[in-house]
Amino acid sequence: MANFTISRCNFPFIFLLSSFYFLTLTLIAEPISSSGPKPLNNSSNPNFDSEITLLGDAALAGGGSYVNLTRPWVSSSGLLLRRKPFKFLDGNLSNPTSFSTEFAFSMTPDGGDGLLLVFAPGDLGSRLSGKGGPFGIKGDNRFLGIEFDTDMNGDMNDLNANHIGVDVGSFVSLAVGNVSKLNLVLNSGEKLKCWIDYDASSKRLEIRLGKMDESRPYAPISAYGIDMSGMWRGEDVYVGISSSNSNGNSSQISSVYSWNFRLRNVPKSMHSLPVNPRGYLDGHGESLSVQKRGVCPLTVLAGMIFVTGCGALVAFVMLFLWAIIISRHTEFPAEFCPKPAEFRYEKIDVVVEKDVDGIKY
Q1: 304 and 184, same structural domain?
Q2: Are 230 and 106 in a shared domain?
Q3: How many degrees, rounded to 5, is the angle at CA 97 between CA 276 and CA 102?
Q4: Is residue 121 within 8 Å of 232, Cβ to Cβ?
Q5: Is 308 within the bounds of a domain?
Q6: What pTM value is reported for the model?
Q7: Which of 73, 82, 149, 336 is most deeply packed, by most CB within 10 A?
Q8: Residue 243 is part of which domain span?
């Protein structure tokens, strides 16, 4: 009887201990992740655009005032996705699309991959994976990313552990901006703000960075030449902000405080550079192939008027200089001043004589 009583008393304790043990093993094996899409209520948070969804570990924080993309454990990843796609070329493949976006963010000093603004065709949400690659993005090479990297990896052309890079098709950065030159640290926990602009007419991508309470900088920290219209033509393209902790000791928390994304469509007739879908990217990301355009009669007329005006101006200047030079080397005779002179007059008597023959002498 005594043994039976003891076993009954210990049973609840053993059961609780066993439950706690199995729960601990489950948490260690696979962190809690809310992978299902969660729409962000824009009416309660005007700092974010509408049509935004939270995926992975991304969740509202601070009473719904901002979003944490990651949680402080290994293999945590999250995505802030704009679930409404857009096209870089319209249905007629004529009017390229430009965009401007700005977002405020912060990253804790703990180890982590950093932050990535990513563009990709198809289902971007299906590429989210904490173990699939840097910044939690996996899949094929058809993507464009602007990385805010807090990890130094020489194989990825990383400048340091505090840089911005432009990635096309891989995470080997083709253009790198040194954030340290701005006296900023990406993973200092300070709130920073980024402005990214793409102009379809010049095919130029510009990235600016500053503190959250400062105005937009004049000079970009990095600029890159690329024809995004040629990359995806009329395909549906999605854009999102992702982050992950893929390293063994990563516990970084990446937070986003605001995000606005705007599209601009400019008629093809106003583009300074025509679209060349086959030359969307050159070897160094600086020069772009340009198609030849027909000669415009108005352009020819304007050129002739300009040349004529320049010729007339040059002729006038030469005549003016010639007149100055000639006037310096011409000698004029001195002015003659007449002086009074005295004259003396004498009276001469002429005597006429006749000879005998009557001839006068």
Answers
A1: no
A2: yes
A3: 125
A4: yes
A5: yes
A6: 0.65
A7: 149
A8: 33-279
User: What is the chain's length?
Assistant: 361
pLDDT tens sequence across 288-299: 333 334 456 777
Residue in 39, 70, 76, 73 with CA at minimum distance from that of residue 54: 39
Q: Give me the number of domains the chain comprises.
A: 2
Q: What token pair was written down for 345? A: 């007059």
CA–CA dist 310, 299 (Å, integer)? 16
* pLDDT tens string 53-108: 899 889 999 888 899 998 888 778 889 999 899 999 877 767 899 999 999 999 99
* DSSP string for residues in 8-62: HHHHHHHHHHHHHHHHHHHHHHS-----S-EE--GGG-TTB-SSEEEEET-EEET
**φ/ψ (deg, to 5) at 203:** 55, 55
* Whether 87 contacts 249, CB under 8 Å: no
CATH number at residue 84: 2.60.120.200
Let me know whether 242 and 107 are in one domain.
yes
In a shared domain, residues 55 and 159: yes
Position 87 in a domain: yes
CA distance 78 to 312: 68
**Contact present, 151 and 254 (Cβ < 8 Å):** no
DSSP-derived 3-state class of residue 190: coil
CA angle 106, 111, 117 (to 5 degrees): 45
State residue 300 phi and psi, 5-degree precision: -65, -45
Same domain, yes or no, for 97 and 183? yes
Closest CA to 151 of 170, 132, 171, 168: 171
At 191-231, the pLDDT tens digits run 999 999 999 999 999 999 999 999 999 999 999 999 998 89
